[in-house]
Amino acid sequence: MCFVCEKEDNPKPAGGKSVGLDFGLKTFLTCSNGAQIPSPLFFSKYLPLIRACSRSLSKKKRGSHRRLKARLRLARLHRKVAHLRKDFFHKLANSLAKQYSHIFIEDLNLKGMVKLWGRKVNDLAFGEFVAILEKKTQVIKIDRFYPSSKTCSSCGTLKEDLSLKDRFFHCPSCGFSLDRDLNASINIYRVGASTLGVEAIRPA
């Protein structure tokens, strides 16, 4: 199963090129061609300052001018984080859209990711990035239950005992070994491309 999202304002992607993307915690995106985008985690970077401003706000008398100034200062910090994140997303989405006319991703289970990874998922804001990307190029979502990380991208064997601590995929059948996120992105690409059934597309 896959979902095709229409594109708007396409910044002239390379005709026919396609890529699979795997989202992660430390690495924001791993591409099926081997490229990796580190996670920016803007909120985490500004968290000490945000906490300091929050403590300062809590100490100010309610209704006072100082409390108002402290509240405005905290709001500005949150706006700055949101702006930095959105700017990063737009630049990354533009770069991807210029390179690829078809992008394959998993239909993300954001609630499940929050339970698994906690607050950092909200900082990474995968859903916001995907929404931006969908406006710039064609995004095809594969079934969220497809075991992209546990499937060998070389022979197709399913490795049930792969844990989150395992950063490399080692196939028990053919001996193939690869970074787990790259392995997943290759599988996402293949499933998306085969389900879409477009002969014109080609990997990057």
Automatic annotation (TrEMBL):
Pfam families: Cas12f1-like_TNB, OrfB_IS605
The keyword Heme belongs to this UniProt entry's keyword annotation: no
Domain Cas12f1-like TNB residue range list: 126-188
Keywords from the UniProt entry: DNA recombination, DNA-binding, Transposition
Domain of life: Bacteria
GO biological process, one term: transposition
InterPro entries tied to this protein: Cas12f1-like_TNB (IPR010095), RNA-guided_DNA_endo/Transpos (IPR051399), Transposase (IPR001959)
Domain Probable transposase IS891/IS1136/IS1341: 4-115
Keyword DNA-binding: yes
GO MF entries: DNA binding
NCBIfam families: guided_TnpB (NF040570)
Family according to the record: In the C-terminal section; belongs to the transposase 35 family.
PANTHER family: RNA-GUIDED DNA ENDONUCLEASE RV2885C-RELATED, TRANSPOSASE
Protein name per UniProt: Transposase OrfB
Organism (species): Helicobacter bizzozeronii (strain CIII-1)
